[in-house]
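Lecture 7 notes: from sequence to structure.

We start with a single chain of 566 residues. Read the sequence below before looking at the structure.
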Amino acid sequence: MSGLTLDQAVAKVTAENPTFAVGTAEIRGTQYRVFSNAPDHIYALLLASRAAHGDGASDYLVFEDQRWTFDAFVQDVHRMARLLQRDYGVTKGTRVALAMRNCPAMLIGMMAISALGGVTVFLNAWWTGAELDYALGDSSPKVALADDMRTDRLARLAQAHGLHVVNLGTAHEDHGAGLSDVLAQSDSRFDAAQIAADDDFAIMYSSGTTGHPKGVVQTHRGAINAVFTWLMQAALTQLIEPPEDDSSPAPRPVILIVTPLFHVTATHPMFLLSLPAGAKLVVMHKWCADTAARLIDREKVTRFLGVPTQSADLMEAASRLGLTLDSLEYLGSGGAKRPAAQVAALSKRFPSAQIATGWGMTETNANGIGLVGRDYARHPGAAGRLYPPVQDVRFLDDAGYEVAVGEVGEITVKSPCNMREYLNKPDATAEVLQDGWLRTGDLGRIDADGMITILDRKKNIIIRGGENIACLDIEGALHRHPGVREACAFALPDDRLGEVVGAIVQAEGAVVPTEAALQDFLATHIAHFKIPSRIWVQAKPLPRGATDKLDRRGIRAACLADADIR
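Now the structure, written as tokens:
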């Protein structure tokens, strides 16, 4: 059975399915396309999703040895909302911080804050004194819900910031006793807030590598339009790539969360999407490939989304443990470009799964670009196509003019999913948000078929004697070498050329490649001026940040100092 084109599928779904009907709305003075029948706010999304979860008595949330049905989860959300309202005066507009590693309390707290019209402030669980101090001063939360370790860290700062810290225990260690003890002090009666679609929903801090991170202010409409965009993609895929056998009912979606819940990849296309999708949610405290493989096998997980390294780790773990993981239907990645060779390897190792890639930002509520299935196999180096139907994209030069199809420009997106602002940073906001368009800082190009290739971050361009070189180009070429597991490229200062290319690789296999061997290998794959002048080779994994992206700035600094970068 032949499928529809993307445009045909979008037209059919938006016309025939009222869930995905599209209208227009004026948001902060600009007209946008929006999902006209979507709930107005996150708490309404929770309540509206009750029907998607059947009788509400099946498992909804799984964390280690703890389980919640959907109805039990909603009940705990209401009890948490009652406690925050009664004991801490949380009301519409009150900022409440979450400071913990992945656990059910984060999800319950996030929804309870939303039910009261409060604003969730996501604090990076890896932050220590100075970083926490900055974020608390920047966002001014009234209350913080924390686990044991973060409670200790916040205690030293609470008085200075007028912060009430509520310790919910550490579910990974106390099996949920801390959360249960707190909720036992409350019933489920609370006064729900009147929340408008464009009210603030959350503040998430960008993972900046220099200076203080920026607080990205997200609205309810922005988050929900992103969720409905992903929900619609499943319907589009069924029309574009019809299944060969659609006689048997599809299994219930089961989503595994492997990335930190203080970042948008875990909260939006995983947790929030699970609500209207009727999915079961399985949450990992922290990443462990063997644990992930066993959970996928035990809970029959259908959807996995992580950084490319986690996909590679999962392949190795499945092979090592002798698990087929044939329940997987979707194996996605984001946060970094997947090596083309990995796309083919994943398809071979998990033949029942659609291999996918995606691009999004905290500033876009994670909405953006994606590619899945046969289309991804045909274009393994691309980022994908713009997710329809509420986004627009254009590519701009440094002066702000649109470049022609096929030319390199800064990816600039107009969408109701775009952030409202950078908290307390009007100049930074004005620099990236103009007339509803968000300048993303990513460089790429689009072809006549709408296929987008991301070349690099603007700040990750190496300018060698006037020639622009994308770090991703170098890394992609290095990944072709069989002795390279991962690679990171960066600029090295040069008196004559201004900058030259440097790189570091993690070697794998019995034979460790030398710097000279890698340079010779690259000479057959990329232009001479792109070949790194210096390549560091090591057996250890390359350092990564909180979102598991390579810490490019830290790596560069350590290599310049010729230091051990363990």
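The mean pLDDT is 93. Keep this in mind for problem set 3.
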